[in-house]
Amino acid sequence: MKKFILIVILLISSKDFAQSRYNYKQGSKFIEKAQTEIQKGNLSEAQMNLEKAGKSNYGFCGNAWASAESKINLLKAEIFNRKNEFDKSLSVLDSMAGCGFGADCEARDSLKIVTLSLKFGSEKVKKSFKNVMAVKVKPPNIESSYSIYIADLNYTFVFQSWVGSGYSENENSEENDGHKFIKLIEKHKYYKLLE
0.90 exceeded by the pTM? Predict the structure, then answer.
């Protein structure tokens, strides 16, 4: 009897699993549809497409999964921004990783700055970033991650930089030179948002 119940449960769960998953092409289409719906202002339709995209199977390649997850999270953050739910947007963006595996961390970091500007105002954000005096190397530093605490915004900006910085790679190291911070980010797209 126990074997029969176990088999029934496995069949039901595998049937449910198979029905709730979509393939790579379908997942990509859902992401594209979500982007279109956001542009049209149909946020609930966009969210529905993102939910389906999140249930899609992107194969065995970690890069494909990281890339798709990155696109989904960027669009989720954009939806939260349009709803003026900036803390939720930042939470989604802060949860993103996988820069070395296909995630678009340059877009993530740019959207963080856009979100902070929407929340606090562009001038306050620019001034706050220019006042940064310490950069912390984030261990483990596999993805060239750094962080700065911005007191005026009560926010820790974690960002990625592949540009040679001269920063030490020691665990928990901290550099107290704001000029090095600017040098570290000035070659990235998001720096233009802070000029």
Answer: no
Task: Please give the average per-residue pLDDT across 177-194, as a whole number.
Answer: 79
Q: Please report where in the chains the tokens 């126990």 appear, as a residue.
A: 2
- Closest CA relative to residue 33, chosen from 53, 56, 57, 19: 53
| Whether 96 contacts 112, CB under 8 Å | no
CA distance 86 to 84: 6
Our count of domains for the chain comes to 2
Query: Residue 109: which residues within 8 A CB-CB, separation 6 or more?
Result: 159, 160, 188, 190
Distance CA 5, CA 21 (A): 24
**Which domain-ending residue is among 99, 133, 158?**
99
- Cα dihedral sign, 176-177-183-186: positive
